[in-house]
Write a structure and sequence with these properties.
Elements: H1 16-34, H2 36-43, E1 47-51, E2 55-60, H3 63-84, E3 90-95, H4 98-102, H5 127-131, H6 150-161, E4 170-174, H7 180-194, E5 200-204, H8 205-217, H9 221-229, E6 233-237, H10 246-261, E7 265-270, H11 282-288, E8 292-296, H12 301-314, H13 321-330, H14 335-352, H15 358-364, H16 366-372, H17 379-390, H18 394-398, H19 404-420, H20 425-431, H21 437-453, H22 455-469
The protein binds adenosine-5'-diphosphate (ADP) and magnesium ion.
Length: 470
């Protein structure tokens, strides 16, 4: 099997327009530092080709310019890029005759804002090279399954094991950092193991676009098409980036149809469902939704805790349960951030040689915890809000009465206390009329189950949660 992956590598992913904006900021600073004249002669002619999350590729119109820039202003450019680009490591300057850049190679590219970013230095889709670039951690074994992602997981595994496409295409969607890329890499790794002869391409939609526009420019669309159509499994990640690029959409549509018509598997991911993809042509949208649409829901407390336990094990460190619980209850935005938090705590404790506990966690993650929780919410706030909402008395909420009209708000209040405050399960139990921590745990589980299965119920919980955090 051969696998192709782009540079993205699950680090920082920037849209080309964001890259341009950041480069614009570097330019403003350089202009202020170097003066108008120097800026206009030496810096302005530089063009951004691409930022892969670590390395910025620029182009200069001649070798002379390139050398001059690097010897005279190289350090300044480097320092400013480091300040402004996230995760920046280095930059390179290629030589590129500018006249070619401003002249579209084909009429199709004229409207495409990405054309200036695509030049001949962009690496070929070299299959062997890219195999190594698949993230080795993104396997099925390392994927923690929970209610929010079980469908996406099962469908992915099914595809990876199947001889012929069980459903085609598979459309995987969900918010940022919920595991789409992880599942796609896992499919690629698994196929490599069980069907080594199959040809797989994994590529970001952005890379697909670069390659396509580049092929147009070099009038080489035939081999482009061959390359993409002559494979068993095509995975295109983050397809929302194709929105609005008419010619790329057109080509994508044809490639896509050709593969599906020949019974080759296509897997697409996006941050929205096919019907919500804006700027996407209607026939493409509807075709995307033809096969299996598997969505990944926002994480639950339970899944977050499971992921943290698995990751802590993988890091071979012992992290106390209350610390994991704190992270799982407070860092709810996405898994990437959750993982980042755990890594920070572990790195900190290794460096300073202090053991991991609740206090060090609070110290190390002060900024993160604050941004996930702008105002400290108290258990009293929660109890009050929930009682108002359901029109029950606080004394009833704290009592041992077991009527449904009371147990429902009580369970929800406990659940909200768990996810919105840093209090431990025993502490929450105490504040709810001296209940045991297992009762609290049971309530949290129960609410999550009901939220997953009962839309009205989950709306209520969401309304309450919002009214507390806003
Ligand atoms: P997306 O592509 O949806 O934005 P990623 O696949 O890049 O998200 O996932 C972000 C991070 O979270 C990765 O490091 C990934 O390994 C991790 N991750 C996501 N879901 C899971 C899961 N269910 N189990 C373990 N790790 C996960
Ligand atoms: Mg991704």
């Amino acid at each position: 099997m051969s696998v192709v992956q782009d540079h993205e590598d699950c680090q920082v992913f920037l849209h080309p327009s964001q890259v341009q904006t950041l480069w614009g900021q570097v330019c403003v600073r350089l202009k202020a530092d170097l003066g108008e004249a120097v800026f206009t002669s030496w810096i302005e002619p530089l063009k951004v080709i691409v930022y892969d999350g670590r390395c910025l590729q620029l182009s200069a119109p001649s070798r002379f310019m390139k050398d001059r820039i690097q010897t005279q202003y190289g350090e300044k450019v480097f320092d400013l890029c480091q300040e402004i680009f996230p995760n920046f490591e280095d930059y390179t300057v290629a030589i590129k005759a500018m006249s070619k850049d401003v002249e579209p190679a084909s009429e199709h590219t004229r409207v495409d804002p990405f054309q200036n970013q695509v030049i001949d230095t962009i690496t070929e889709l070299d299959e062997e090279d890219y195999t190594a670039a698949l993230d080795v951690r993104f396997t099925f074994e390392n994927f923690v399954i929970g209610k929010p992602n079980e469908l996406a997981y099962a469908a992915s595994l099914r595809i990876a094991e199947a001889e012929t496409p069980p459903f085609n295409p598979m459309f995987l969607y969900g918010g940022v950092g919920l595991g789409k890329t992880h599942l796609m890499h896992a499919i690629a790794w698994h196929i490599k193991k069980v069907h080594p002869k199959k040809k797989v391409i994994y590529v970001s939609a952005e890379k697909f676009m670069y390659e396509f526009v580049r092929a147009l420019r070099f009038k080489d669309t035939v081999s482009f098409k061959e390359r993409f159509r002559n494979i068993d499994i095509l995975m295109i990640d983050d397809v929302q980036f194709i929105s609005g690029k008419d010619t790329t959409q057109e080509e994508f549509f044809h490639t896509f149809n050709a593969l599906i018509d020949n019974n080759h598997q296509v897997i697409i991911s996006a941050d929205k469902s096919p019907s919500d993809l804006e700027g996407m042509e209607e026939r493409l949208r509807s075709r995307l939704g033809w096969g299996l649409v598997a969505d990944i829901h926002p994480t639950t407390y339970e899944l977050r805790l499971g992921i943290l336990q698995t990751k802590a094990e993988a890091l071979k460190v012992v992290v106390p349960m209350d610390v994991l619980e704190l992270l799982a209850s407070r860092i709810t935005s996405n898994i990437r951030e959750l993982e980042g938090a755990l890594n920070r705590i572990v790195a900190h404790s290794t460096l300073v040689g202090r053991k991991i506990d609740i206090d060090t966690t609070h110290d190390v993650l002060r900024d993160l915890l604050r941004s996930n929780d702008r105002r400290a919410i108290t258990i009293e706030d929660i109890q009050q809000k929930v009682c108002d909402y359901y029109n029950v008395k606080i004394s009833d909420l704290l009592s041992t009465r077991r009527m449904q009209v009371i147990t429902k708000p009580r369970q929800i209040a406990m659940y909200l206390s768990k996810i919105l405050t840093p209090k431990s399960l025993p502490e929450i139990g105490r504040r709810f009329g001296g209940r045991d921590h297992t009762t609290v745990m049971h309530s949290v589980k129960r609410v999550e189950e009901l939220c997953a299965n009962d839309r009205e119920y989950s709306n209520d919980v969401e309304v309450l949660r919002r009214s507390l955090i806003l």
